User: Fold this.
Amino acid sequence: MDIEAYKRFWRTTVEDYIGFWEKEARNLEWFRPWDHVVEKGEHPFVFKWFVGGQLNMSYLCLDRHAKSWRKNKVAYIWEGEPVDGDGKPLSIRKYTYYELYREVNRLAHVFLSLGLRKGDRAAIYLPMIPELPMTMLALARIGVIFTVVFSGFSAENLAIRVNDLGAKILVTADGFYRRGRLINLKEVADKAVESTDVEKIVVVKRAGNEVAMKEGRDFWLHDLLRTVPENLVVEPESLDSTHPLYVLYTSGTTGKPKGIIHDTGGYAVLLNSTMKWVFDIRDEDVYFCTADIGWVTGHSYIVFGPLMAGATIVMYEGTPDYPTVERWWQIIERYGVNVFYTTPTAVRMLMRFGNEPVKKHDRSTLRIIHSVGEPINPAAWRWLFEVVGERRCPVGSTWWMTETGGILISHLPGLMLTPLKPGTNGLPIPGIDAEVVDEKGNAAAPGQRGYLVIRKPWPGMPGPPTGMWKEPERYRQVYWEKVNGVFFTGDYAVKDFDGYIWVAGRADEVLKVAGHRIGTYELESVLVSHAAVAEAAVVGVPDEIKGETPVAFVVLKSGYQGGGEMAQQLMKYVRETYGAIATPSGILFVSKLPKTRSGKIMRRVLRAVASGGSLGDLTTLEDEAAVDEVKESYEQLLKEVRRGG
Ligand code: WT7
Assistant:
């Protein structure tokens, strides 16, 4: 497909984005049609999509298929991590659309009988087991707003989210398996709820490990389900299009995590359309997305998107390298996967083991491959294209973020496939006015680095009532103020001469560690909460596999000794207080942090020291600090770090 033809079409969809998205919305089944396509909400830059329209996400994902020929089509193929002596998975569970429909109805009944009603909030802290999507769908069915908390997060991180959302019910599991190790999840959940108002905990039995159950507060899910008839039906609530489906917390530059609200109608429309355009999803397809449902990728493209599309979805509990690095290729072979959605970090990790582990397994079913979460380097792209996809499958790097709800920039094999280029994100999808601009909002010249912004509202954007849970003002400041009146993504990007967008990475103090979004500020707060730490500054340094890893500069309180033992202790502390994904790859002890006269930490100096690089070009340094001052701090710090801090 030639680029100009796509761009001509795209321009018409952006110019009349309202008409365009209205047409897309007609592809869904609505209980009541909308009166207006898009309207401004009560708060600035919070838009309401498909106002007056009513629908239900669980209905779109389940009832529709259960009433059709897809009734006995497999919805989920779930594979647990543990294997037997021959490396064969010990547990595989399959759910047809009808079975999933029935399970979700029974679960919805359980939640109703626990007292949950439309508009209430619940938190979900579950590993990658079928009960996770089932719980999300059951809550969506009765209009309960939920937040999913990644099962690798600490008790502290869970408590912050539960409290911010005001969740009264928590759904968790006894334990799960990660790289062969049993993780006692209930223990973490118990610790978290101590500082919350959670009244009831529903516990899924997954691993069978011993857990403490508190009488009157904790309930085994299988006990609650025991008396619920197999074919019990809970009618889906007819929900306003603007009703919040879920809140998902994500890291920003400052403060506590931001609770991004996603609505029901707009979000459903974006997912439904991108499933077709980006993944070209077809009824005979087996679709495998390797993300964790704890992140937005899993919400949109393991649960709601592919279920709405009626696909057969592979869901895997564990890591790609357990028991060997062949695991994903085995899964692709075992189920005949056609569409594969993965991440650059995993690809870089698996590449190191050469082509043999891949080639041993049949991948002839693969048709489309995409990656997500961070920029993909050309070498990793080539490996996916040449080795994994045998030069047969288009490989893309879909750009989006928690806030956008779904994919906004991507190759579109299901619509019009423009020529591939290793490493690019491609052109904006139809209806999305993505642009690379300077500080003033003027489009940057091709090849020039600028900020990635979205200039027109889109379905799937942060939803009513406040965009960010309880923080409308922060929502406006973070996303709509930096470049006047357009949505600021926080990413640096370059547009090439074909109009392809290449996202280069974050333009703010947010790290992308193995694709996970971690605020340096959050990590610094964790470190200074340790008794030995007076001050801390965290920067990201390039990492061959993870893209980027955190390195911490720490000033200790007097009476504490730096060195290996203290570094170990602090790393353990971060793991326990935040989660393993944020563990620093290095801790450097210094006597003071380099700061400008106005007291701002010179992060550029820290980054240069941490990555062993040079300070680089100082001519662009604005009034942050005098050039000499920066150089001096750099040399001072280098000396100190080399001395063995
Ligand atoms: C940030 C959003 C989107 C779901 C997973 C991440 C980076 C995401 C790409 C890509 C380059 C990417 C951006 C963005 N990012 N996809 N294909 N190429 N960078 O969601 O945790 O909200 O992170 O991930 O920096 O801002 P998230």
Notes: The CA atoms of residues 22 and 37 lie 6 Å apart. The chain has a mean pLDDT of 96. The chain has 19 helices and 29 strands. The pocket of WT7 is lined by residues 250, 295-297, 372-375, 397-402, 425, 489-491, 503, 505-506, 512, 517 (CB under 6 Å).
